[in-house]
């Protein structure tokens, strides 16, 4: 049996700062070169050219073009050149008067998988342009094949596992998803109850939005129980956002509470597709 808790409500608020309180700063340090990100997630779609960019930037403009190169960190790379990807260019030129240039990589949709492979790149540059603590000299590019989420794929039977604070809570159980109309779905069996709640699918964002305060079930001592967005011990007045990927669906953190805010929280449910 899952334990009951009483939720001490903390309504999360957003602090707003006026733009007038902060002036834009001007960088006055030395010049350096860097990858713009430590990691890059690149999804390759079918029937596209598969070319993606990994950007490199400098802190200060120059009066002349500047060229930098990258090499593959083989020890930390699982992608296979010529199979998963090819370089369009290993050298990048940042034109005079510009801050940013890009390495281009072509990923091969037919050979990649939704799980993806890892391509780790090292930046080659003069030591004078490597600024300790600032320059990102290595970036990891996660190359994966686009996984199309469709209503047909979403519908059907799912195996669910509730988790609390990162650990499994209770045994797995069955859930269902059925289309109501358009992008609206009926989610059945959440938390192992005979419930049916509504969700709205965003295929572009690979997410399901569950409106809060929907009736879930009636408990024999708590009475009617509703679903809320609960993170830790804080109640958020906004929908619960569930992430979808090729592995399945992971709900946002939620609680099942009665009118007195007594019930079960915070939980995350992980759903895997039953074929």
Across the major sheet, the strand order is 11-13-14-15-16-20-21-23
Number of helices: 1
Query: Number of DSSP strands?
Result: 23
What does the main sheet amount to?
8 strands, antiparallel, barrel
Structurally, the number of domains stands at 2
Helix content: under 10%
Strand residues, percent: over 45%
CATH architecture of the largest domain: Beta Barrel
Give the N-terminus to C-terminus distance in angstroms.
29 Å
CATH topology of the largest domain: Lipocalin
What this model shows, in words?
- There is one protein chain.
- The chain has 1 helix and 23 strands.
- It has 275 residues and is mostly beta strands.
- The protein folds into 2 domains: 30-145, Immunoglobulin-like (Sandwich), CATH 2.60.40.1740; 150-273, Lipocalin (Beta Barrel), CATH 2.40.128.
- The radius of gyration is 24 Å and the shape is elongated.
- The two termini are 29 Å apart.
Descriptors for this entry?
Lipocalin, mainly beta, 50% strand, Immunoglobulin-like, 2 domains, 275 residues, single chain, eight-stranded antiparallel barrel
Structure described in brief:
It is built from 1 helix and 23 strands.
Give the secondary structure arrangement, pairings included:
Layout: E1 5-6, E2 33-35, E3 39-44, E4 51-58, E5 66-72, E6 85-89, E7 91-94, E8 100-107, E9 117-124, E10 138-145, H1 151-154, E11 156-164, E12 167-168, E13 173-181, E14 184-188, E15 196-202, E16 207-210, E17 214-219, E18 223-231, E19 234-236, E20 240-245, E21 248-250, E22 254-257, E23 262-273
Parallel strand pairs: 3-10
Antiparallel strand pairs: 1-23, 2-4, 4-8, 5-7, 5-9, 6-8, 9-10, 11-12, 11-13, 11-23, 13-14, 14-15, 15-16, 16-20, 17-18, 18-19, 18-22, 20-21, 21-23, 22-23
